[in-house]
Amino acid sequence: MTEEFAEKNLEARAEAYLRDTVLPNISSTVYVLHCCEALRPISEEINLVNKLINAIANNACKEQLTTGLLKLDHTFPSKTTPTMEPETSSDWWGKSFNVLSLEFFQRVVSVVKSKGLKQDMISKILINYAHGSLQGIRVRDPQVVKGSLHDLELQKKQRVVVETIVSLLPTHSRKSPVPMGFLSSLLKAAIAASASTPCKSDLERRISLQLDQAILEDILIPTNSPQNSHNTMYDTDLILRIFSIYLNTDEEDGEDSDNYIDESQMAYDFDSPGSPKQSSIIKVSKLLDSYLAEVALDSNLLPSKFTALAELLPDHARIVSDGLYRAVDIFLKFVSL
Protein backbone atom coordinates (compact mmCIF):
# COMPACT_ATOMS: atom_id res chain seq x y z
CA MET A 1 0.00 0.00 0.00
CA THR A 2 3.06 2.28 0.11
CA GLU A 3 5.18 3.87 -2.61
CA GLU A 4 7.72 1.07 -2.22
CA PHE A 5 5.47 -1.15 -4.33
CA ALA A 6 3.99 1.32 -6.81
CA GLU A 7 3.48 5.03 -7.31
CA LYS A 8 0.20 6.57 -6.18
CA ASN A 9 -0.58 3.57 -4.04
CA LEU A 10 -3.28 3.48 -1.36
CA GLU A 11 -1.32 5.32 1.33
CA ALA A 12 -0.43 8.26 -0.90
CA ARG A 13 -3.94 8.46 -2.33
CA ALA A 14 -5.48 8.38 1.14
CA GLU A 15 -3.19 11.15 2.35
CA ALA A 16 -3.99 13.24 -0.73
CA TYR A 17 -7.71 12.73 -0.17
CA LEU A 18 -7.40 13.83 3.45
CA ARG A 19 -5.29 16.85 2.51
CA ASP A 20 -7.36 18.05 -0.42
CA THR A 21 -10.91 17.00 0.45
CA VAL A 22 -11.31 16.31 4.17
CA LEU A 23 -9.00 18.58 6.16
CA PRO A 24 -10.03 21.92 4.56
CA ASN A 25 -13.64 21.42 5.72
CA ILE A 26 -14.54 21.34 9.42
CA SER A 27 -17.66 19.20 9.12
CA SER A 28 -15.92 16.65 6.90
CA THR A 29 -13.02 16.47 9.31
CA VAL A 30 -15.37 15.97 12.26
CA TYR A 31 -17.12 13.14 10.41
CA VAL A 32 -13.83 11.36 9.69
CA LEU A 33 -12.77 11.89 13.30
CA HIS A 34 -16.05 10.28 14.38
CA CYS A 35 -15.27 7.27 12.15
CA CYS A 36 -11.84 7.01 13.78
CA GLU A 37 -13.49 6.16 17.09
CA ALA A 38 -14.30 2.69 15.74
CA LEU A 39 -10.77 2.27 14.36
CA ARG A 40 -8.87 2.71 17.60
CA PRO A 41 -6.11 2.06 18.53
CA ILE A 42 -4.84 2.04 14.93
CA SER A 43 -6.14 5.55 14.20
CA GLU A 44 -4.25 6.80 17.27
CA GLU A 45 -1.05 4.90 16.43
CA ILE A 46 -0.77 6.43 12.95
CA ASN A 47 -1.44 9.88 14.47
CA LEU A 48 -4.56 10.36 12.36
CA VAL A 49 -6.69 11.42 15.33
CA ASN A 50 -4.32 14.20 16.38
CA LYS A 51 -3.98 15.37 12.77
CA LEU A 52 -7.75 15.66 12.44
CA ILE A 53 -8.19 17.43 15.78
CA ASN A 54 -5.50 19.99 14.93
CA ALA A 55 -7.07 20.57 11.50
CA ILE A 56 -10.45 21.24 13.11
CA ALA A 57 -8.90 23.72 15.55
CA ASN A 58 -6.88 25.51 12.88
CA ASN A 59 -9.84 25.82 10.52
CA ALA A 60 -12.12 27.05 13.30
CA CYS A 61 -9.66 29.81 14.20
CA LYS A 62 -9.14 30.73 10.53
CA GLU A 63 -12.89 30.97 10.05
CA GLN A 64 -13.13 33.12 13.17
CA LEU A 65 -10.58 35.52 11.68
CA THR A 66 -12.36 35.57 8.32
CA THR A 67 -15.71 36.25 9.97
CA GLY A 68 -14.14 39.07 11.96
CA LEU A 69 -12.74 40.67 8.80
CA LEU A 70 -16.12 40.37 7.07
CA LYS A 71 -17.79 42.09 10.00
CA LEU A 72 -15.15 44.83 9.92
CA ASP A 73 -15.69 45.30 6.20
CA HIS A 74 -19.45 45.43 6.82
CA THR A 75 -18.96 48.11 9.48
CA PHE A 76 -16.55 50.23 7.37
CA PRO A 77 -17.40 49.35 3.73
CA SER A 78 -15.40 50.74 0.87
CA LYS A 79 -17.21 52.98 -1.60
CA THR A 80 -16.68 50.57 -4.49
CA THR A 81 -17.59 47.33 -2.69
CA PRO A 82 -21.25 46.48 -2.08
CA THR A 83 -21.96 45.58 1.53
CA MET A 84 -22.89 42.00 2.36
CA GLU A 85 -23.93 40.49 5.66
CA PRO A 86 -21.13 38.29 7.02
CA GLU A 87 -22.05 34.62 7.09
CA THR A 88 -22.04 32.95 10.47
CA SER A 89 -21.32 29.35 9.53
CA SER A 90 -20.00 28.66 13.02
CA ASP A 91 -23.43 27.41 14.07
CA TRP A 92 -23.51 24.52 11.64
CA TRP A 93 -19.95 23.30 12.14
CA GLY A 94 -20.34 23.65 15.89
CA LYS A 95 -23.38 21.39 15.79
CA SER A 96 -21.41 18.80 13.83
CA PHE A 97 -19.42 18.13 17.02
CA ASN A 98 -22.49 16.42 18.49
CA VAL A 99 -21.64 13.13 16.75
CA LEU A 100 -18.36 12.82 18.66
CA SER A 101 -17.91 10.72 21.76
CA LEU A 102 -17.41 12.66 24.96
CA GLU A 103 -13.69 11.85 25.00
CA PHE A 104 -13.08 13.06 21.45
CA PHE A 105 -15.29 16.10 22.00
CA GLN A 106 -13.26 17.05 25.07
CA ARG A 107 -9.99 16.69 23.15
CA VAL A 108 -11.25 18.83 20.28
CA VAL A 109 -12.56 21.62 22.51
CA SER A 110 -9.37 21.64 24.59
CA VAL A 111 -7.23 22.11 21.47
CA VAL A 112 -9.61 24.70 20.00
CA LYS A 113 -9.43 26.68 23.25
CA SER A 114 -5.63 26.48 23.33
CA LYS A 115 -5.46 27.90 19.80
CA GLY A 116 -7.51 30.96 20.74
CA LEU A 117 -11.09 30.38 19.62
CA LYS A 118 -13.28 33.05 21.21
CA GLN A 119 -15.11 32.23 24.42
CA ASP A 120 -18.55 32.98 23.00
CA MET A 121 -17.96 30.40 20.28
CA ILE A 122 -16.72 27.87 22.84
CA SER A 123 -19.92 28.48 24.80
CA LYS A 124 -22.13 27.84 21.75
CA ILE A 125 -20.30 24.59 21.03
CA LEU A 126 -20.71 23.42 24.63
CA ILE A 127 -24.40 24.36 24.72
CA ASN A 128 -25.10 22.45 21.49
CA TYR A 129 -23.28 19.37 22.75
CA ALA A 130 -24.92 19.49 26.17
CA HIS A 131 -28.41 19.73 24.69
CA GLY A 132 -27.74 16.67 22.54
CA SER A 133 -25.98 14.62 25.21
CA LEU A 134 -28.16 15.38 28.22
CA GLN A 135 -31.48 15.18 26.41
CA GLY A 136 -33.62 12.42 27.82
CA ILE A 137 -31.31 11.52 30.71
CA ARG A 138 -33.22 12.99 33.59
CA VAL A 139 -32.72 11.20 36.88
CA ARG A 140 -35.83 10.66 38.96
CA ASP A 141 -36.24 10.67 42.73
CA PRO A 142 -33.00 9.61 44.55
CA GLN A 143 -34.84 6.80 46.33
CA VAL A 144 -36.04 5.41 43.00
CA VAL A 145 -32.56 5.63 41.49
CA LYS A 146 -31.14 3.47 44.26
CA GLY A 147 -33.28 0.54 43.22
CA SER A 148 -32.96 0.88 39.44
CA LEU A 149 -29.86 -0.27 37.58
CA HIS A 150 -31.05 1.52 34.45
CA ASP A 151 -31.38 4.84 36.26
CA LEU A 152 -27.99 4.36 37.90
CA GLU A 153 -26.40 3.98 34.47
CA LEU A 154 -28.18 7.08 33.21
CA GLN A 155 -27.09 8.99 36.29
CA LYS A 156 -23.47 7.94 35.78
CA LYS A 157 -23.58 8.97 32.12
CA GLN A 158 -25.11 12.32 32.99
CA ARG A 159 -22.56 12.93 35.72
CA VAL A 160 -19.61 12.36 33.37
CA VAL A 161 -21.10 14.60 30.69
CA VAL A 162 -21.90 17.43 33.11
CA GLU A 163 -18.50 17.34 34.82
CA THR A 164 -16.71 17.34 31.46
CA ILE A 165 -18.71 20.26 30.06
CA VAL A 166 -18.20 22.28 33.24
CA SER A 167 -14.44 21.67 33.02
CA LEU A 168 -14.48 23.12 29.48
CA LEU A 169 -16.45 26.29 30.28
CA PRO A 170 -14.72 29.65 29.66
CA THR A 171 -12.98 31.46 32.50
CA HIS A 172 -15.09 32.77 35.39
CA SER A 173 -16.21 36.32 34.67
CA ARG A 174 -19.05 38.75 35.35
CA LYS A 175 -19.15 39.26 31.58
CA SER A 176 -19.07 35.57 30.73
CA PRO A 177 -20.61 34.62 27.36
CA VAL A 178 -22.22 31.56 28.97
CA PRO A 179 -25.98 32.24 29.33
CA MET A 180 -27.38 32.17 32.85
CA GLY A 181 -30.13 29.76 31.80
CA PHE A 182 -27.53 27.25 30.62
CA LEU A 183 -25.55 27.51 33.86
CA SER A 184 -28.74 26.94 35.83
CA SER A 185 -29.63 23.89 33.74
CA LEU A 186 -26.14 22.48 34.24
CA LEU A 187 -26.38 22.96 38.00
CA LYS A 188 -29.76 21.23 38.14
CA ALA A 189 -28.36 18.36 36.07
CA ALA A 190 -25.23 18.20 38.24
CA ILE A 191 -27.31 17.94 41.40
CA ALA A 192 -29.60 15.29 39.93
CA ALA A 193 -26.60 13.26 38.75
CA SER A 194 -24.72 13.58 42.07
CA ALA A 195 -21.79 15.32 40.40
CA SER A 196 -18.66 16.05 42.39
CA THR A 197 -18.60 18.86 44.95
CA PRO A 198 -15.95 20.85 42.98
CA CYS A 199 -18.17 20.67 39.88
CA LYS A 200 -21.24 21.97 41.70
CA SER A 201 -19.21 24.62 43.54
CA ASP A 202 -17.79 25.83 40.23
CA LEU A 203 -21.29 26.27 38.83
CA GLU A 204 -22.51 28.02 41.98
CA ARG A 205 -19.69 30.54 41.67
CA ARG A 206 -20.33 31.12 37.97
CA ILE A 207 -24.02 31.74 38.67
CA SER A 208 -23.18 34.13 41.50
CA LEU A 209 -20.97 36.20 39.20
CA GLN A 210 -23.87 36.67 36.78
CA LEU A 211 -26.65 36.77 39.35
CA ASP A 212 -27.93 40.14 38.15
CA GLN A 213 -28.74 38.47 34.81
CA ALA A 214 -30.84 35.70 36.36
CA ILE A 215 -34.59 35.29 36.34
CA LEU A 216 -36.62 33.53 39.01
CA GLU A 217 -36.74 30.24 37.10
CA ASP A 218 -32.93 30.10 37.07
CA ILE A 219 -32.69 29.93 40.85
CA LEU A 220 -35.64 27.66 41.57
CA ILE A 221 -33.46 24.62 42.26
CA PRO A 222 -35.53 21.63 43.44
CA THR A 223 -34.44 19.81 46.56
CA ASN A 224 -32.79 16.56 45.53
CA SER A 225 -31.47 15.19 48.81
CA PRO A 226 -32.75 12.08 50.61
CA GLN A 227 -31.58 13.76 53.84
CA ASN A 228 -34.18 16.50 53.36
CA SER A 229 -36.26 15.59 56.42
CA HIS A 230 -38.57 18.61 56.04
CA ASN A 231 -39.46 17.76 52.42
CA THR A 232 -39.06 21.32 51.18
CA MET A 233 -39.64 21.98 47.50
CA TYR A 234 -36.53 24.08 46.83
CA ASP A 235 -32.93 24.00 48.01
CA THR A 236 -32.76 27.27 49.96
CA ASP A 237 -29.33 26.45 51.40
CA LEU A 238 -27.86 26.38 47.90
CA ILE A 239 -29.45 29.72 47.01
CA LEU A 240 -28.17 31.21 50.26
CA ARG A 241 -24.65 30.16 49.23
CA ILE A 242 -25.01 31.65 45.75
CA PHE A 243 -26.26 35.02 47.02
CA SER A 244 -23.55 35.05 49.71
CA ILE A 245 -20.87 34.43 47.08
CA TYR A 246 -22.30 37.30 45.03
CA LEU A 247 -22.05 39.66 48.00
CA ASN A 248 -18.57 38.52 49.01
CA THR A 249 -16.99 38.37 45.57
CA ASP A 250 -14.45 41.06 44.75
CA GLU A 251 -15.79 43.80 42.48
CA GLU A 252 -13.43 42.70 39.73
CA ASP A 253 -13.55 39.11 38.53
CA GLY A 254 -10.52 36.88 38.12
CA GLU A 255 -9.58 38.33 34.72
CA ASP A 256 -9.76 41.99 35.80
CA SER A 257 -8.40 41.87 39.34
CA ASP A 258 -5.51 44.26 38.70
CA ASN A 259 -7.34 47.32 40.10
CA TYR A 260 -8.79 48.16 36.72
CA ILE A 261 -11.75 50.55 36.85
CA ASP A 262 -14.28 50.49 34.05
CA GLU A 263 -14.61 53.95 32.47
CA SER A 264 -18.40 53.56 32.45
CA GLN A 265 -18.35 53.46 36.25
CA MET A 266 -16.04 56.43 36.88
CA ALA A 267 -18.85 59.00 36.62
CA TYR A 268 -20.89 57.37 39.40
CA ASP A 269 -20.74 57.11 43.15
CA PHE A 270 -21.44 53.59 44.39
CA ASP A 271 -24.57 54.67 46.25
CA SER A 272 -25.99 56.41 43.18
CA PRO A 273 -29.04 54.45 41.93
CA GLY A 274 -27.74 54.86 38.40
CA SER A 275 -24.31 53.37 39.03
CA PRO A 276 -23.66 49.99 37.38
CA LYS A 277 -22.75 48.39 40.72
CA GLN A 278 -25.81 49.70 42.53
CA SER A 279 -28.00 48.79 39.56
CA SER A 280 -26.66 45.25 39.77
CA ILE A 281 -27.43 44.78 43.45
CA ILE A 282 -30.91 46.29 43.02
CA LYS A 283 -31.62 43.68 40.34
CA VAL A 284 -30.32 40.99 42.68
CA SER A 285 -32.51 42.26 45.54
CA LYS A 286 -35.62 42.09 43.35
CA LEU A 287 -34.64 38.58 42.33
CA LEU A 288 -34.23 37.51 45.95
CA ASP A 289 -37.57 39.05 46.94
CA SER A 290 -39.27 37.14 44.11
CA TYR A 291 -37.56 33.96 45.29
CA LEU A 292 -38.67 34.57 48.86
CA ALA A 293 -42.26 35.03 47.73
CA GLU A 294 -42.09 31.72 45.86
CA VAL A 295 -40.52 29.61 48.62
CA ALA A 296 -42.81 31.24 51.20
CA LEU A 297 -45.62 29.13 49.73
CA ASP A 298 -43.87 26.01 51.04
CA SER A 299 -45.38 25.23 54.44
CA ASN A 300 -42.42 22.95 55.24
CA LEU A 301 -39.87 25.76 54.99
CA LEU A 302 -38.34 26.49 58.38
CA PRO A 303 -38.60 30.08 59.68
CA SER A 304 -34.83 30.09 60.24
CA LYS A 305 -34.22 29.33 56.54
CA PHE A 306 -36.60 32.07 55.42
CA THR A 307 -35.11 34.58 57.85
CA ALA A 308 -31.55 33.83 56.75
CA LEU A 309 -32.44 34.72 53.17
CA ALA A 310 -34.59 37.73 54.09
CA GLU A 311 -31.81 39.30 56.17
CA LEU A 312 -28.99 38.51 53.76
CA LEU A 313 -28.77 41.70 51.68
CA PRO A 314 -27.30 44.99 52.96
CA ASP A 315 -29.55 48.00 53.56
CA HIS A 316 -28.56 49.80 50.37
CA ALA A 317 -29.63 46.84 48.19
CA ARG A 318 -33.31 47.78 48.28
CA ILE A 319 -34.70 51.17 47.29
CA VAL A 320 -38.11 50.01 48.51
CA SER A 321 -38.98 46.95 50.56
CA ASP A 322 -42.40 46.19 49.11
CA GLY A 323 -41.22 42.90 47.63
CA LEU A 324 -39.76 41.76 50.93
CA TYR A 325 -42.91 42.71 52.86
CA ARG A 326 -45.02 40.79 50.37
CA ALA A 327 -42.84 37.68 50.80
CA VAL A 328 -43.03 37.93 54.59
CA ASP A 329 -46.82 38.27 54.42
CA ILE A 330 -47.08 35.15 52.25
CA PHE A 331 -44.76 33.21 54.55
CA LEU A 332 -46.76 34.07 57.66
CA LYS A 333 -49.91 32.77 55.98
CA PHE A 334 -48.39 29.43 55.02
CA VAL A 335 -45.76 28.70 57.69
CA SER A 336 -46.35 25.91 60.21
CA LEU A 337 -45.25 27.47 63.49
From TrEMBL:
Record carries keyword 4Fe-4S: no
Keywords: Ubl conjugation pathway
PROSITE patterns assigned to the protein according to its UniProt record, in alphabetical order: NPH3
Transmembrane segments: none
InterPro entries given in the database record: NPH3/RPT2-like, NPH3_dom
UniProt domain NPH3: residue ranges: 91-337
Residue ranges of coiled coil: none
GO biological process, one term: protein ubiquitination
UniProt keyword Transport, yes or no: no
Family according to the record: Belongs to the NPH3 family.
Protein name as catalogued: NPH3 domain-containing protein
Higher taxonomy: Eukaryota, Viridiplantae, Streptophyta, Embryophyta, Tracheophyta
